[in-house]
C-alpha cells in the first residue's frame, strides 16, 4: 500500500520563486549545484577526524562521539528510506515553468523526504546533543556550522528544482528524531556494549597487530 503525496500550493509557489530567483543570478546559478551536494562529502571527513583525534589523544569519548554521530546519520537514513518505500511523490521538475531552469539533475527516485536534509540534520543534531551532554564546546560550536550547511543545502535543493519545500521540512524533523533516541542513556549503553565497544576493540586490534601502533 502506497501513500500518494502532493505539494501544497504554498510549497509550489516558494519553489518557483526560489528557482526564478536563482536562475536570474549568474553566480547563484553556478553555486547552487555545488552547495546542493558538497556538504554531504564533508561528513565522513568530520567523523574520521573525531575518531583519529580519539586515537592519538587516547580519548575514547571522541571515538564514542564519532560512532554515535555516524549511527545517528545511518539510522536516520534508514528511516528515510523506509518512508520512501511507502510514499509516492513526484519530483518538482514538471511544475517548474521552464525546463531550462532545472538546475540540478537527479536519480529518478522518490522526492519525500529529502535524504540529504535528513542526514545533514542528523549529523548536526547529534553533534549538538553530544556537546551538551559532555559539556564540550567543540561539538556545540561545530554543530552550528553543520546546521548552516544543512539549511544552505536545503535551500539549494529547492532552488535547483530537485526537492519540494515539504521534502526538506520532513527531512529536517526526521533528522532530529534519531539522535535524540540514540543519546538516551539506556539505548546509548546498549549500542556502547554491543556495537561501539566491539568496533573500537577491532580497531585497536588492527592497529596493534597489523600497523604496530599502540
From TrEMBL:
Regions crossing the membrane: 38-56, 68-88, 116-132, 139-162, 168-191
Metal-binding in keyword set: no
Boundaries of every Phosphatidic acid phosphatase type 2/haloperoxidase domain copy: 65-183
UniProt superkingdom: Bacteria
SUPFAM superfamilies the record matches: Acid phosphatase/Vanadium-dependent haloperoxidase
Keywords: Membrane, Transmembrane, Transmembrane helix
Name of protein: Membrane-associated phospholipid phosphatase
Organism whose genome encodes this protein: Candidatus Vampirococcus lugosii
Highest classification ranks of the organism: Bacteria, Candidatus Absconditibacteriota, Vampirococcus
Amino acid at each position: 500500500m502506497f501513500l500518494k503525496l502532493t505539494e501544497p500550493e504554498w510549497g509550489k509557489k516558494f519553489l518557483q520563486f526560489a528557482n526564478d530567483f536563482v536562475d536570474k543570478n549568474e553566480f547563484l546559478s553556478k553555486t547552487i549545484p555545488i552547495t546542493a551536494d558538497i556538504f554531504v562529502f564533508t561528513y565522513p571527513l568530520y567523523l574520521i577526524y573525531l575518531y583519529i583525534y580519539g586515537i592519538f589523544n587516547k580519548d575514547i569519548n571522541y571515538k564514542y562521539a564519532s560512532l554515535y554521530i555516524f549511527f545517528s546519520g545511518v539510522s536516520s537514513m534508514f528511516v528515510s528510506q523506509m518512508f520512501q518505500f511507502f510514499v509516492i511523490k513526484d519530483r518538482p521538475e514538471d511544475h517548474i515553468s521552464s525546463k531550462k531552469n532545472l538546475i540540478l539533475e537527479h536519480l529518478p527516485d522518490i522526492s519525500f523526504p529529502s535524504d540529504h536534509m535528513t542526514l545533514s540534520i542528523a549529523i548536526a543534531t547529534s553533534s549538538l546533543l553530544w556537546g551538551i551532554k559532555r559539556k564540550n564546546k567543540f561539538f556545540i560550536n561545530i554543530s552550528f556550522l553543520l546546521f548552516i550547511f544543512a539549511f544552505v543545502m536545503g535551500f539549494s535543493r529547492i532552488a535547483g528544482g530537485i526537492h519540494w519545500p515539504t521534502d526538506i521540512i520532513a527531512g529536517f524533523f526526521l533528522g532530529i528524531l534519531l539522535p535524540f533516541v540514540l543519546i538516551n542513556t539506556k539505548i546509548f549503553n546498549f549500542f556502547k556494549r554491543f556495537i561501539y565497544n566491539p568496533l573500537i576493540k577491532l580497531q585497536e586490534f588492527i592497529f596493534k597487530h597489523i600497523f604496530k601502533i599502540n
